[in-house]
Design a protein that fits this description.
Pfam families: rve_2. The chain is mainly alpha-helical. It has one domain. Helix content is 56%, strand content 0%. The radius of gyration is 16 Å and the shape is extended. 0% of the residues are buried.
């Protein structure tokens, strides 16, 4: 926790014994690990390379990856379309 504090990172945790508090992020990280990490672990030669790949994946997930739940649009486009309706 001290190292996180030194780096200016705020640690956030859900309530003890309540996994539902963070189910959306848990789902995202599960998808990310399945799609870009598992089976590719040896491809990451440095931590910086891994960090860049994670940033690229987050961009892909938010701006390019389509899902039926978002009417076959990437999440960013779905949010934009939803805001127009309001």
């Amino acid at each position: 926790q001290q190292r996180l504090k030194e780096k200016g990172i705020i640690q956030s945790m859900s309530r003890k014994g309540n996994c539902i508090d963070n189910c959306i992020m848990e789902s995202f990280f599960g998808i990310m690990k399945n799609e870009m990490f598992y089976g590719h672990e040896s491809e990451f030669k440095t931590f910086d390379q891994f960090k860049n790949e994670v940033a690229d994946y987050i961009d892909y997930y938010n701006n390019k990856r389509i899902k039926s739940k978002t009417k076959w649009m990437p999440p960013s486009k779905f949010r934009e379309a939803s805001m127009l309706v309001l």
